[in-house]
């Protein structure tokens, strides 16, 4: 029987995962098809790509060179056929996992019957920031006794559309995977048993003080710099230093400090540094319900996610990241008809296309592209104006072009708020969603405030104010249900929507109705410590983690501090019992297993906002 227990008295800095592997199964962390529970993954990144490393020492997801590139390793969605880079003890073992304090460098301690060894992992950066190539570095350190590891490096065949191969160049083992060129490096403590096209197998054995070092350097359609393994190894600790330098510059309250920093570090991984775009998540097609069809590609930049993340960055003093993301967002919105989401380089998101692989736990389809790119969501208006308002409130200023862009967006919002849209949940049926109307109210309320502060042109200020008041009256007349004691998901339904908890943060009028709505959401959508997105979703998917933290934040803002703190403790205790501090989109409230893409930006930013509010920090 597989025993998994976690101990987290001091959050991520002391979190350990104890995983006992019995002799009769080589890796019982995985099911018969080779899949690992999502909560057993941690993320590595460099501001351009993100890799997911499993608790058994296998990297099962890494897109190179960018987060939205085709995968080099893809066992995450292709079971035993997919690409992986595994360093796993030969003997049965237990695992203790943690990120280094205030860092995205990951440490995994394996304990076997013959000894203990530590695996240290990083996608490296340099002293001037992100390296101009992708560099995945892995170091095995002997601690006690003697530990022997098996090594497997298998590249993705991308649904059999490419055939990876090795070639000798300049005395190095250079691999080719379609347009990706890379080199596999290792030290003398690593023995290569076999190397053939697309597959490397080997072993490493370490005793006290020994170090076995393995790395991949890669790029796409570009010359390759080949570094010595010693240089790569040194950059693991340099990367750790750079991460700690970044976190030390943040403004974080002592209450919930470690939790806020861990989520901030996760969000930092999702900031695509070449452009400033914020990726919704680093993966595609991880299902919202095992066996269902809700498997989407989140490796794009949503206006909503970017806006919320910018506000979270501003709240903790990450002004450089906030400015880069805000600039990217304003430039996209100023280019014409605003989109719901964009590619990381600012282009249109391609239509969905299915990939012929098995899917996570054999849940198909696996997709690239996203249909949301062709939708209209009123939420983009509220998202961008709330972001601009927060940016200015932090003592910053808007340039003339940005102010003009915002003014045009306010006019568009005033014109279009009466139309139906796809809503925050990107549903196929366009309706008059309450959350969408609230977002329009939010946009025009902030636009009036920005105009009064002299930040944007005041020509249409009074018109925006009149439309703001009309939206508020419309919501009060059409969206409130005295019978339900709550704002409804939309006027033509009795359904409830957990995203309406955000109305409290938006400063929408009427605290009594908002408080009653929160109570109704708890009664109908709660499952243990967590919440479903809206009525009926318990049949299709897990609980949406961000919704729970939106609820907690809302109660704290309304002055319900004790209830908010108790809810926060319940949710975080449940999450702390799994993994190394990385959160997915959803959780199955019955099993506690993660669902959906990860690391999920909305979840981590919601944790930051709830924790900071509970700590008494201003919005």
UniProtKB/TrEMBL annotation:
Molecular functions (GO terms): hydrolase activity, hydrolyzing O-glycosyl compounds
Residue ranges of every copy of the Trehalase-like N-terminal domain listed in the record: 38-111
GO BP field: carbohydrate metabolic process
Keyword set, alphabetical order: Hydrolase
Listed Pfam families: Glyco_hydro_15, TREH_N
Leader sequence residues: none
InterPro entries attached to this UniProt entry: 6-hairpin_glycosidase_sf, 6hp_glycosidase-like_sf, GH15-like, Trehalase-like_N
Annotated ranges, domain GH15-like: 255-611
Protein name per Swiss-Prot or TrEMBL: Glycoside hydrolase family 15 protein
